[in-house]
Amino acid sequence: MIGARSGSPSDVMVPMVRLQQVTHVYVTDREASLAVENIDFSVATGEFVSLVGPSGCGKTTILSMIAGLLRPAAGQVLLQGRPVSGPSPEVGYMLQQDYLFPWRTIMDNALLGLELGKRVNEASRERTRLLLESMGLEGKEHLHPSQLSGGMRQRVALVRTLATNPGLLLLDEPFSALDYQTKLQLEDLIAETLRERGKTAILVTHDLAEAIAVSDRIIVLGRNPGHIRRTFDIPKSIREAQPFYARDQPGFNELFHEIWGELEASGVKE
Ligand code: ADP
Ligand code: MG
C-alpha cells in the first residue's frame, strides 16, 4: 500500500505509528531529566518521515520508544493502533554504525534478525540472498565485514533489517559515517527499496538536503526539552523524484532555506 505517498495521510486509516502526547524522562541515580515532552505525530502506512533537529533534541529517544526499547513516562505510542509494549518483528531498527559481527560472514550477519526470531529456513534464507543481490552484494555472502567498504557494510545492515520483513523501518543516521558519494548512492537505493516494498520509514538525519530528498514530510524538533517545532510537507515534484535528482527540482532551495531557518532557531537555547 503506497497510497500515502501520492495523497495526504487518510484520517480513516489507522496510522502505522502514532505518538500521543509522549513524554520521556531519563532517570539516573543522581537526577531525572526531561528528554522529550508532549510529542504528538502520526505516520501513515507507506509514508517516509524524517526527524531533524539539533543534537540532544530527542530524536533517538523517540525512535527507541517507537521500537519498544524505552517506555514513555507519559502518553502513548501506538503501532497500527495498538500500544507498544516491547520490541516487535513489525519494526526494524537500523543504527548509524553497522554493528555487524566481525567473526560472522556477510550471509550470517544478514540472517541475524531472522535467527533471533527463530525464522531461518530455506525460504527466508533465499529471500535474504535475493536481498543481498538486489543491494549489489552478490558474491560477497561468504566474506567477512572487514573485507567490505563502509558503504557495503551499511547495505548489509540494511539487508539484515529488511530480512525479517518489518513494515516499519527506523533509521537513525544510517548514512552519517559514509563519504558523500556513497551516501548519495545509498540514499537512492534505500529510498527506492522502501518505496518498491511499500515500507513505512522514519529517518533521523542531520543532513537537511537528504531529509528533503527522501521524505514525504519533515518534522523539525527543538530541545530543552525535545518538542516539535514545525512540520513541513514536501511538494509532490520533489517527493516523486529520485533522491539524487530531487535536489535539482524547482523549489528545493527555497524549501531548504525555509527549513534551515527553522532549524537555526531551534538550535538556540530556549
Ligand atoms: P538526539 O538523538 O536528538 O541527539 P537523544 O534522544 O539522544 O537526542 O537525547 C535527548 C536528551 O536525553 C539529551 O538531553 C540527552 O542528553 C538525554 N539522554 C539521552 N540518553 C540518555 C540516557 N541514557 N541517560 C540520561 N540522559 C539521556
Ligand atoms: Mg541521536
At a glance:
Residues 17-248 form the ABC transporter domain. The protein is α/β, with parallel strands linked by helices and 270 residues long.
Question: What keywords describe this structure?
Answer:
globular; P-loop_NTPase; 270 residues; 4-stranded antiparallel sheet; Rossmann fold; binds adenosine-5'-diphosphate; alpha/beta; disordered N terminus; ATP binding; 6-stranded mixed sheet; 2 domains; 11 helices; binds magnesium ion; ABC_transporter_ATP-bind
Query: Which geometry do the CA atoms define?
Result: globular
Report how far the terminal alpha carbons are from each other. 41 Å
Distinct ligand kinds: adenosine-5'-diphosphate, magnesium ion
Mean of all residue-level pLDDT scores: 91
- Return the structural class: alpha/beta
Question: In the CATH hierarchy, what is the architecture of the largest domain at level 2?
Answer: 3-Layer(aba) Sandwich
Helix-strand layout with pairing:
Elements lengths: L2 H4 L10 E11 L4 E12 L4 E5 L6 H8 L7 E6 L2 E2 L7 E4 L11 H5 L1 H5 L5 H13 L15 H14 L4 E5 L7 H17 L3 E5 L3 H7 L2 E6 L4 E7 L2 H5 L2 H4 L5 H16 L3
Parallel strand pairs: 3-8, 3-9, 6-7, 7-8
Antiparallel strand pairs: 1-2, 1-4, 4-5, 9-10
Helix pairs in contact: 5-6
This protein binds adenosine-5'-diphosphate (ADP) and magnesium ion (MG).
InterPro entries: AAA+_ATPase, ABC_transporter-like_ATP-bd, ABC_transporter-like_CS, ABC_transporter_ATP-bind, P-loop_NTPase
GO molecular function: ATP binding; ATP hydrolysis activity
Keywords: ATP-binding, Nucleotide-binding, Transport
